[in-house]
């Protein structure tokens, strides 16, 4: 939990200080709070995609959110990757790939 007063949310037109009764950087806790109608959360879209698609959560301020949720997958440059690592990499690319505007 973060109780400092220096928390900000980044939008396309700048950073804005936020205030509220709970400041937290644990996405699971934030999602739980949103599902219980306890406020607005700022979290990567891939983390709440199923809840938004099912109507349990509603996306707000979408037009003002930067889409640069960088995600890095680091692994050593192995000539012969194991099948397990290859499947994991494939899963990550499928699960976290940006959705196209057409879908």
UniProtKB/TrEMBL annotation:
It comes from the Bacteria. This is Transcriptional regulator LysR family. The lineage of its organism: Bacteria, Pseudomonadati, Pseudomonadota, Gammaproteobacteria, Vibrionales.
